[in-house]
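Slide 14.
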Amino acid sequence: MNHELSAMIQNSKHEIISCDRCGDRIECKANSYTKCQCSVVQLSINEVQYISENYDGCMCAKCLLELQAEYREMMGIG
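Slide 15: predicted structure.
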């Protein structure tokens, strides 16, 4: 574990988890959702359903955006 990540974990008030899709370490702020990095991705109910059919855990914003784009491409939404 690198020094920067170790310091982040020690100074964090929130849980450090791995993104369920890419494995990157993210700070989960489920108890403070509006401050969590994933809250910047606005998903429709259909996009949430599409993602939840394939993944169970939390994901980073990058992966959520990629899956949203994948869903929209698949559905011809553009």
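Speaker note: The longest strand covers residues 15-18.
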